[in-house]
Amino acid sequence: MSKPRIWYLPTPSHTGGVFKEDTYRRLIASFDVIENETDRAVTSDEVEEEISGFDGLVTGWGVMPLGETALERADRLKVIVHSAGSVKYLFTPEMVAGHLVPRGIRVISARGAIALNVAEHAVGALIMMSRRWIHHALNIRERGMWRDPDQTRSKQFLRGAVVGVVSASMVGREVIRLLQPFNVRILVFDPYLSDWDAGRMNVERVALNTLFEMSDMVTIHAPSIPETDRMIGAEQLRLLRDDAVLVNTSRGSVLDHDALYEEAKAGRIQAQLDVTTPEPLPPDHRLRPLSNVVITPHSSGAGAYGHREIGEITFNALEHFFSGREPVPGEVDLAHWALIA
Q1: Domain extent at residue 18
Q2: Which residues is 56 bridged to in the sheet?
Q3: 319/264 Cα distance (integer angstroms)
Q4: Strand bridging mode 5-8 / 32-35
Q5: How confident is the model at residue 139 (pLDDT cuts 50, 70, 90)?
Q6: 85 with 179, same domain?
């Protein structure tokens, strides 16, 4: 029996960053793989011209969005595996509804690997901001001050805290898993979370305003879709208790930056933003100089551990799919395309 024919579009530099050497060797050995051996992205025109005859397609960072003509010419295509995070830029909704779903083409994403890195950052930020590590370190190094008498001192750190998780997304669920050893009470706002899943994860489903009112710390993991645009604004931020910690590692559009400034300018709350709108924030943006708002450059998804898991998910997904094993790791639910980040 001939091996499934796979077109591997990412460049060698991408491969080196997301695959362990032995995993990539297994991929090459298990399938009839046509590799991109150049240091440049395969163009959309090249994909259209050459996609016929391939059973599977591997995409990744740097790969161009697929065109409708390419899908029309993909006569044997059964599965697309994205060796990176979100797949939403690869297809238009019309392509999903008109080609992928009717033809049963499956789409896989390694977003679960990125979630490992983002979740680690989020939990670390909850600890860092509640304990004021950056503030204390800068006081000592830049101001020569051992302890600032005007610095607010939270007595509630992560252990034993009430933690609000906005969205039980893939990252949100990994955060929930990492929080378990800290003896926290976890509140979740997610209109799509079932009671069964909430019980299984040992969390409490609550309304968004209730979450902000009751939490010592809030971490945001909602997707950037029209329904979540500035979903968190003045109404929610006013409900935060004094010395509360707010962390956003999802997308800047979910959080109203003007409302955050108005609530944070007096130093009442602590915020850590790994994402902003726009990115980067303009040099004169009002949030930049606030000492209680710590901004990082959208770096939470970085990290060797999570990145190397991308290759594992990619290979396992192809192996599961072509051997008929279900479920396929990382499969994207195309029926809920509009809700995908």
Answers
A1: 5-109+304-339
A2: 6, 79
A3: 50
A4: parallel
A5: confident
A6: no
pTM of this prediction exceeds 0.85: yes
Q: Which stretches of the chain are DSSP H helices?
A: 12-18, 21-30, 44-50, 68-73, 93-95, 101-103, 111-131, 133-142, 170-179, 195-201, 208-214, 234-239, 257-264, 304-323
Residues 6+ apart with CB under 8 A from 175: 119, 122, 123, 165, 219, 221
DSSP 3-state assignment of 108? Answer: strand
Separation CA 51–CA 70 (nearest Å): 7
Beta pairing partners, 217: 163, 245
d(CA 337, CA 341): 9
Q: Can you tell me the distance from the alpha carbon of 224 to that of 166, in angstroms, rounded to the nearest whole number?
A: 13
Q: Do 166 and 89 reside in the same domain of the chain?
A: no
CATH assignment at residue 29: 3.40.50.720
d(CA 22, CA 20): 6
Assess whether 142 and 280 both reside in one domain: yes
103 and 147 in a common domain:
no
Based on the domain organization, do 271 and 320 belong to the same domain? no
**Residue 188 phi/psi, 5° resolution?**
-130, 130
pLDDT in tens, 184-210: 999 999 999 999 999 999 999 999 999
Asked if 276 and 249 count as a contact pair (C-beta separation under 8 A), the reply is no
pLDDT tens by residue, 210-263: 999 999 999 999 999 899 999 999 999 999 999 999 999 999 999 999 999 999
Closest C-alpha to 82, from 109, 62, 61, 47: 109
- Count helices and strands in the chain by DSSP H and E runs: 14, 12
Count up the domains in the chain and report the number.
2
The whole-number pLDDT of residue 260 equals 98
